[in-house]
From TrEMBL, chain A:
Source organism superkingdom: Bacteria
Organism: Streptomyces flaveus
Name of the protein in its database record: Acetyl-CoA acetyltransferase
Upper lineage: Bacteria, Bacillati, Actinomycetota, Actinomycetes, Kitasatosporales
Thiolase C-terminal domain segment(s): 257-384
Any single Pfam family the record assigns to this protein: Thiolase_N
Thiolase N-terminal domain span: 10-193
Molecular-function GO terms, alphabetical: acyltransferase activity, transferring groups other than amino-acyl groups
PANTHER family on file: ACETYL-COA C-ACETYLTRANSFERASE, ACETYL-COA C-ACYLTRANSFERASE
TrEMBL record, chain B:
Species in which this protein is naturally found: Streptomyces flaveus
Entry's Gene Ontology molecular function annotations: acyltransferase activity, transferring groups other than amino-acyl groups
Pfam families: OB_ChsH2_C, zf-ChsH2
Residue intervals of the ChsH2 rubredoxin-like zinc ribbon domain: 359-383
Protein name: Hydroxymethylglutaryl-CoA synthase
Length: 402, 478
C-alpha cells in the first residue's frame, strides 16, 4: 500500500488552448477540434499518433463518443471523466498514469465545456432527483464560496471593509494579469474602485469577485519522459499529481471553521511529497490556482502553504502574489479573467505553466521567478465548495530532477 | 374527567399594513395590520408550527390518537395534507390523520369532533385568507393556525380546561362561498345573514348553557369567531353575557384567520384565563357552534409557551404591499435567469420522511456524533449502521457562518443561508427565514421551523429552515 507518485516518468510535449469566452458561434465540438488540433501541431505529430484519450467534461457531452464523434477517431480508447470543477485536471492525471503504466506510448487529455448555450447565469450543472431536503440544490456557487469570507474575517480580526479590500485586491491582480493574455475572456484591467463597488451577487461578493462564465477547451499530450525530447526540446515534466475527494464532513461537523479547505491541504502536502518540495513559496516559480471566487484564492494561499495561517490577507495586500511578486499566482489571469468552462479549466491552468516554463509567455506576463532560476509550476483545481470538495494539485517542471 | 389538555397557536411573523393597500390602490384608508403567511408558508406548514407549540410537553405526542387538519385553503386536493403534519410531528403511524378541508366551518367541526372523541385528538385549525386586491377580504383577512389536544386527565398532561358542554346548529345558507380554484370568496349582502346568525348563535349558546346548567352571566370569557363581522359584533352585544367578559377579536392586529380564528381566539383566552373560569367560544358560519369550557387549576402551569399576544407583539414591521402580492402570486414577477427550482421527487422524499418532515437526524452509538442529515456511516468514527434516531426539531443552534444569496432561485430574494451549529452537537446548512439580512450574523441564535420551501412543477416542497430565536430559550437539550 502506498502512494508513490510518478515524478519525472512522464512529460507533456504538446498543448493547445482555445480562447475562452462567449463563443456564440462555436460549439463544444468546434472548441474540441481547435484545442486538439493546436496540441498535436505543437507536438509535431498527428492525431493518429495518439494511442488513447482522456476526455473531461462536466456536462457538455457524455461518454467517450462525445470526443471520438467530434474528431471521428478511428476506434481509439476514449475515457470520459468527470470530477466537478477539477474535471480537466482529472483527465490529465489519468492520461499521465496511462503512459506511466506502460499501457500507452502517447496519451492525450482533453477538456471542454460549453456553458453559454444554456441562457442561464452562472453554472447550470446537473442534478439528480432529490428529496428537497438539503441546501446543496438551492445555494448558488458564489453564495457557497462566500461562506468563507465572514468566517475568515471573524477569525483573523478583519472588519468587513478590510476583508472587502483584500478580496478586491485579488480580483484586481487577476484582471491585471488577464489583460496581458490574448486567450482570456476578460482582457482589461479593472480599477480597484470599480471592483469594490460592483453589484453584490452573494454575501460580500460582487460581480468582480466571481469568475466569469465562458466556453473553452484545452488539451495536453503526454509521453514517457525518456521519449519527451523526440517531440520537443522543451518538455514539461510531471513532478507530482495528487487528488483527493474529501469526506464531506464540513457541513456536518462544527469543528470545520470555513477558513480552509482541508482537502486542499491534504492534496498539496501529497503533491509536495511526490515532488520533493519543502518550501513551496520559494521553490515554485508560479502557481495557477482555482480562483473561482476571490475568497477562495485567499484561503488557498494558506492551504497551499504560500502564506502562514491568518497571514494570506497581508501577503495579498503587499503584492506577494502579483506578477512581479515573490510567488506569482494566476499569471494568466486565472478563472477570474478566463471564466470557468468546467472541463477545460484544469488544462487551461496547465497551459499557462507550459507557456511560462518554456519561456513562451509574452514578455509582459512572464514571471520573473523563472529568471531567478526557479523551474517548477503548480496547478490547483478544486470542485465542490467549503466543507465538501475535491482537490487536485500538480507540480510540473522544465527540468528533470537528478 | 376529559377536556382540553394542550393548545398552541401560530401567528406568522409577517404583517401587512392596511394603509399600505389603500395608499397603493388609492382606496379608503383602513387602520391596523393583518398577519401574513410568509412566502414559504401555507396552511400545512402553519398547522405544523401550531401543533409543535401544543405538543411541547414530554410524553404528549405518543398519546395523540387522531389528528384532524381543518382548513379552507388546503395545500393539496386529493392528497391528504394532514399526513404532512403527522409526519412533521413524528406521530405514530397508526394515528389517523385526515383533513377537514374546504369550508371555514371545518374549524368548528374539528374542535367539536376532537372535544367529543373517545381517543385523545389533535385538532389543528389553519387558514390563509386571500381576496382580490382592494377587497375587504384582503385587508380584513389574516393567516394563522391553532392546535388543541383533547383527552383525559393524566399526570404531566392534565386537563387544563374541562368541556362543560357544546352545541351546534347547522343551516344551509348562501352567506359566503367560493368556487374551487377561485381567487376570492363571494358574499351575499351583509344584512341578510346578520339576523340569522344572531338567532342561530342564541340557539346554540342557549342549548349549551342549559346543558351546563349555567346562565349567560356566568361566562367569564366570551369569544365570538366568524367571517361575518357584523353578525359577530351583534352576537357579542346581544348574547347577554357581562360586557367585561367579551373578548376582543384580534382583527386590528392580525385580521381574521377564518378557519383558524376560533382557535386563535380560544388560545388567546387560555393564555390569560385564571383557574376556575368559564369560557364560551361561539363560532358562526353556515350555522353556529358553541364550546363551553371551564379552566382548571392546571392551566397556569400548562399554558402554551408562545402566547398569542407575544406572537403579535414580535411580528415584523409590515411588508410592502407589493411584496405581499408577490408572495400570494397576485403579482407575477420576472424570475431570475436561473434554472427553475427542482421539485422534490416522490421516492427519495418518501425514503427520507423522518428527516425531511420530522427533522430526525441520527446519532452514532459508538462515538455519539450527531449527523444531519442522518447517515449510515459515521462521519467521525466511520462505524456503519450503528445509528439511533436523533430528533432535532426542538434543538436551537448558533450561526457559524452565513451568506446572502442574491442569485439563487427563491420566491422572495435574496435567499439567506446559514450554517447552524446545534446545541449539544451537529451542524446543518439551511435557509434562514422570517429574517432580514441584519439577522444573518455569526453567533446569531436560531431555532428550526417547518416551511414550504418552494412549489416547483406543481409539487410543494416541505422542509425545515432556521429562524431567529425571538421567544427566549426553547426547551433544554436532553
Amino acid at each position: 500500500m502506498g502512494s508513490h507518485g510518478i515524478r519525472d516518468r512522464v512529460a507533456i510535449v504538446g498543448m493547445g488552448c482555445t480562447t475562452f469566452g462567449e463563443h456564440w458561434t462555436r460549439s463544444a465540438d468546434d472548441l474540441l477540434v481547435d484545442a486538439v488540433g493546436e496540441a498535436v501541431t505543437s507536438a509535431g505529430i498527428t492525431l493518429d499518433d495518439i494511442d488513447a484519450f482522456w476526455f473531461g467534461t462536466q456536462a457538455s457531452g457524455v461518454s467517450g463518443l462525445a470526443l471520438s464523434r467530434a474528431l471521428h477517431l478511428p476506434n481509439k480508447p476514449v475515457t470520459r471523466v468527470e470530477n466537478m470543477c477539477a474535471t480537466g485536471s482529472e483527465a490529465l492525471r489519468n492520461a499521465c498514469y496511462a503512459v506511466a503504466s506502460g499501457a500507452y506510448d502517447v496519451a492525450m487529455a482533453v477538456g471542454v465545456e460549453k456553458l453559454k448555450d444554456s441562457g442561464m447565469s452562472g453554472l447550470s450543472g446537473t442534478t439528480m432527483p432529490g428529496a428537497g431536503d438539503d441546501s446543496r440544490g438551492e445555494i448558488t456557487a458564489p453564495a457557497n464560496f462566500s461562506l468563507l469570507a465572514p468566517a475568515y474575517a471573524a477569525k483573523y480580526g478583519l472588519d468587513e471593509d478590510e476583508m472587502k479590500d483584500v478580496i478586491t485586491r485579488i480580483a484586481w491582480k487577476n484582471h491585471v494579469n488577464g489583460a496581458r493574455n490574448p486567450r482570456a475572456q476578460f482582457r482589461k484591467e479593472v480599477p480597484l474602485e470599480r471592483i469594490r463597488s460592483a453589484p453584490i451577487v452573494a454575501g460580500m461578493l460582487g460581480v468582480f469577485d466571481c469568475s466569469g462564465v465562458s466556453d473553452g477547451s484545452a488539451a495536453a499530450i503526454v509521453v514517457r519522459a525518456e521519449d519527451a525530447y523526440r517531440y520537443t526540446d522543451k518538455p514539461v515534466f510531471v513532478k507530482a499529481l495528487s487528488f483527493v475527494a474529501g469526506p464531506a464532513d464540513g457541513l456536518m461537523d462544527p469543528e470545520y471553521d470555513f477558513t480552509t479547505f482541508p482537502e486542499v491541504v491534504a492534496s498539496a502536502q501529497e503533491a509536495y511529497r511526490q515532488a520533493g518540495i519543502t518550501d513551496p513559496r520559494t521553490e515554485l516559480a508560479l502557481a495557477e490556482v482555482h480562483d473561482c471566487f476571490t475568497p477562495t484564492e485567499l484561503v488557498l494561499m494558506e492551504d497551499l502553504g504560500f502564506s502562514d495561517r491568518g497571514q494570506a490577507w497581508k501577503d495579498v495586500t503587499s503584492g506577494q502574489f502579483d506578477l512581479d511578486g515573490g510567488l506569482p499566482v494566476n499569471p494568466d489571469g486565472g478563472l477570474k479573467a478566463f471564466g470557468h468552462p468546467i472541463g477545460a479549466s484544469g488544462l487551461r491552468m496547465m497551459f499557462e505553466a507550459w507557456l511560462q516554463l518554456r519561456g513562451e509567455a509574452p514578455p509582459d506576463r512572464t514571471v520573473r521567478t523563472l529568471a531567478e532560476g526557479r523551474s517548477l509550476a503548480l496547478t490547483h483545481n478544486l470542485g465542490g465548495g467549503p466543507g465538501e470538495c475535491v482537490s487536485f494539485v500538480s507540480v510540473v517542471g522544465s527540468e528533470l530532477t537528478d | 374527567m376529559a377536556g382540553l389538555i394542550a393548545y398552541g397557536a401560530y401567528v406568522p411573523h409577517h404583517r401587512l399594513a392596511r394603509a399600505d393597500i389603500a395608499a397603493t390602490l388609492g382606496t379608503r384608508a383602513v387602520k391596523g395590520t393583518r398577519s401574513v403567511a410568509g412566502y414559504d408558508e401555507d396552511t400545512t406548514s402553519m398547522a405544523v408550527e401550531a401543533a409543535r407549540g401544543a405538543l411541547t410537553a414530554d410524553g404528549l405526542r405518543p398519546r395523540v390518537g387522531q389528528l384532524f387538519l381543518a382548513t379552507a385553503a388546503p395545500a393539496y386536493l386529493d392528497k391528504t395534507n394532514a399526513t404532512a403534519v403527522h409526519a412533521a410531528l413524528s406521530l405514530d403511524e397508526h394515528v389517523l390523520a385526515v383533513d377537514m378541508a374546504g369550508s371555514v366551518r371545518s374549524g368548528l367541526g374539528a374542535l367539536v369532533t376532537a372535544a367529543r372523541s373517545a381517543v385523545p385528538t389533535l385538532a389543528v385549525l389553519s387558514d390563509l385568507r386571500t381576496g382580490l386586491p382592494g377587497g375587504t377580504d384582503e385587508s380584513a383577512g389574516g393567516d394563522g393556525a391553532a392546535a388543541f389536544v383533547f383527552g383525559g386527565h393524566r399526570d404531566g398532561a392534565p386537563v387544563i380546561a374541562e368541556l362543560l358542554a357544546h352545541d351546534t346548529v347547522s343551516d344551509e345558507l348562501l352567506d359566503r362561498w367560493r368556487l374551487p380554484g377561485a381567487p376570492a370568496s363571494r358574499v351575499w349582502e351583509e344584512r341578510f345573514a346578520e339576523e340569522i346568525y344572531v338567532d342561530l348563535a342564541g340557539k346554540a349558546l342557549g342549548a349549551a348553557l342549559d346543558r351546563a346548567k349555567l346562565s349567560a352571566d356566568a361566562v367569564d370569557h366570551f369569544a365570538v369567531a366568524g367571517l361575518h363581522a357584523r353578525a359577530c359584533a351583534a352576537v357579542r352585544r346581544t348574547a347577554g353575557v357581562r360586557p367585561e367578559a367579551v373578548t376582543g377579536d384580534l382583527t386590528a392586529a392580525i385580521g381574521n384567520a377564518g378557519t383558524a380564528q376560533p382557535g386563535l381566539l380560544l388560545a388567546d383566552v387560555l393564555d390569560r384565563a385564571q383557574p376556575g373560569e368559564t369560557i364560551a367560544l361561539v363560532v358562526l358560519g353556515d350555522g353556529a357552534g358553541v364550546l363551553l369550557l371551564r379552566t382548571t387549576d392546571a392551566l397556569p402551569a400548562h399554558r402554551a409557551a408562545r402566547p398569542v399576544a407575544a406572537q403579535i407583539a414580535t411580528g415584523s414591521a409590515p411588508v410592502p404591499y407589493a411584496t405581499y402580492l408577490t408572495w400570494r402570486g397576485l403579482l407575477d414577477r420576472e424570475p431570475p435567469r436561473r434554472p427553475d427550482p427542482e421539485p422534490p421527487y416522490a421516492p427519495p422524499a418518501h425514503r427520507r420522511n423522518g428527516w425531511k418532515y420530522g427533522f430526525i437526524a441520527s446519532r452514532c452509538e459508538k462515538c455519539g456524533t450527531r449527523h444531519l442529515p442522518p447517515d449510515r456511516v459515521c462521519v467521525s468514527c466511520r462505524s456503519v449502521d450503528a445509528m439511533t434516531d436523533e430528533p432535532m426539531e426542538h434543538v436551537q443552534g448558533t450561526v457559524a457562518t452565513f451568506t446572502v444569496d442574491r442569485l439563487a432561485h427563491t420566491p422572495s430574494p435574496p435567499m439567506l443561508v446559514v450554517v447552524v451549529d446545534y446545541d449539544g452537537g451537529g451542524r446543518f446548512r439551511c435557509q434562514l427565514t422570517d429574517a432580514t439580512e441584519a439577522d444573518a450574523v455569526i453567533g446569531a441564535r436560531v431555532e428550526m421551523t417547518f416551511r414550504r420551501t418552494v412549489t416547483a412543477a406543481g409539487v410543494h416542497n416541505y422542509f425545515w429552515k432556521a429562524r431567529p430565536v425571538r421567544f427566549g430559550a426553547g426547551p433544554e437539550e436532553d
